[in-house]
From TrEMBL:
Organism taxonomic ancestry: Bacteria, Pseudomonadati, Pseudomonadota, Alphaproteobacteria, Rhodobacterales
Role description: Involved in bacteriochlorophyll biosynthesis; introduces a magnesium ion into protoporphyrin IX to yield Mg-protoporphyrin IX.
NCBIfam families tied to this protein: BchD-ChlD, PRK13406.1
Keyword flag Iron-sulfur: no
Protein name: Mg-protoporphyrin IX chelatase
PROSITE patterns: VWFA (PS50234)
Chain ranges of the VWFA domain: 384-527
The protein's annotated pathway: Porphyrin-containing compound metabolism; bacteriochlorophyll biosynthesis
Catalytic activities: protoporphyrin IX + Mg(2+) + ATP + H2O = Mg-protoporphyrin IX + ADP + phosphate + 3 H(+)
Stored Pfam families: AAA_lid_2, VWA_2
Amino acid sequence: MSAGEERWQRANLALACFALDPAALGGIWLRARVGPVRDRFMQGLDLAVRGRNTRRLHPNIGDDALFGSVDLAATLDSGTLTKTRGLLEEPGLLILPMAERAKSGLAARLAGALDDRRGLSLVALDEGAGPEERIPHALADRLAIHLDLSEQRLSDAPDLAIDTDALVEARRLLPDVTVPETAISELAEVAMRLGVLSLRAPLQALAVARASAALSGETEVDEPDLITAIELVLAPRATQFPEAPPEEAEEPEDPPEPDTPDDAPDEASDEDETPPLPTEILLEAAKAMLPSDLLARLEAGRAARNAPGASGSGASKKGNRRGRPMPSRAGRMGGEARVDLVATLRAAAPWQPLRRRATGIPDRIHVRMSDIRIRQFEEKSDRAIIFVVDASGSSALARLAETKGAIELLLAEAYSRRDHVALVAFRGDGAEVLLPPTRSLVQTKRRLAQLPGGGGTPLASGLKAALDLAELARSKGLTPSVALLTDGRANVDLTGTANRAQASEDATLMARALRARGMPGLVIDTGLRPTRGLDALALDMGVPYLPLPRADAKAVSAAVETALDPA
């Protein structure tokens, strides 16, 4: 059986376990791009939860839809306050597409609703393209089952087999399923060895194990059920490969016990006692589920999150363009403020009966200044990636070719992400801004074609030029990031003099200046061997250090995207 077929069978089992008691498991985190594979999974979900109240959410849904609000038309028509029911007020299944785009506020509201045990469950559809794009932790922690079908082929994804009669029987059997006394401690130890810090995870795994036992027609959880729970709940949450526990110090040998007659009862043995499930068996099952590139994925996510000020594309702050609408706020008319008419009427509606009696004018809508609501928009900042390229030395031509290709690859998708790209080259006795922040691919290719190379390594001048360019970009509302590509040590100081000691000191000062201004970035070592001192320079900048020997344009582009995109 191929890996894809095993993954799909696991998804089928996960769906069956979830269908038994969705509210107890919280929900499913499904990581998969929009396509026929996800469509087939959702068809199986519809069949498994048929009869339940299913509602779809939007990642930008407002509190009015979640918790209910004033029904403006009914209130004005009847003269009495009439409210609508919110989506979170009724039990059922919530489906959240584009869950990786959900704001922390929405995640907190949904997490609170799941914790309140209102009979709600959630299927979060994560469409993220990379490991750095993930749903909020508050949601992921409350969804018991984590599935990743991003690499699932359609040929290995036939229609899911959902036996509704078996689900009915398993649902009847579920309350009678018992758990061995050692099961909770075994699951907790496996979670600890996998680096799973959530206290919810072992309890969620126990709930999945009980569901697996009920689906098998059993009334007691056994080893295969615990392995299923580890595969669906604990292994996807792993943050480290499990290591063997430290060996305990050898204890002194006990004195030999006196001989006992053969017919004496053996109190230490009990044939009827069930031996505890060995933790190592469960850990081996978890190891088999861990992806081979687990550490690389975790490191990529940490690089993006740990970069100072790493707001990435579209930072939510005062920027250079208007973003999505936000809930209206109370305010006053005038200036550039735009009145939200519907929100204003909603605020005024509950007071109409009182105001009509007070004024004696029953055929008017009475609006006061306190009712005024002002529109708000989230301001966005376009991202500006500033490449600082070492154009010195004999290997400059190859290094510049890699950078040119990486810039063109990044610009190819700049229009959808509103990215800008800039280029600073340092060589000889100074640095030069060859390309100011731009989204023009034609202009970029023209400038890159004439990029020179050779000479000394004025690293400090390159960082200073990048800092000045970043400050200029910030003043225009952009969000700058700095990507330094070099394979050599600084040997020319800020004055243009060949002085290796002073050049190294100047480079350190400029690196710390970038860090002090909260500038996210990345240091890429393009040398055939790691260059001594570049890791320390990255530490001074407060950014990740990444050695990429023989890196091509695609590798450089992928590294920059991974490190500078938002977490």
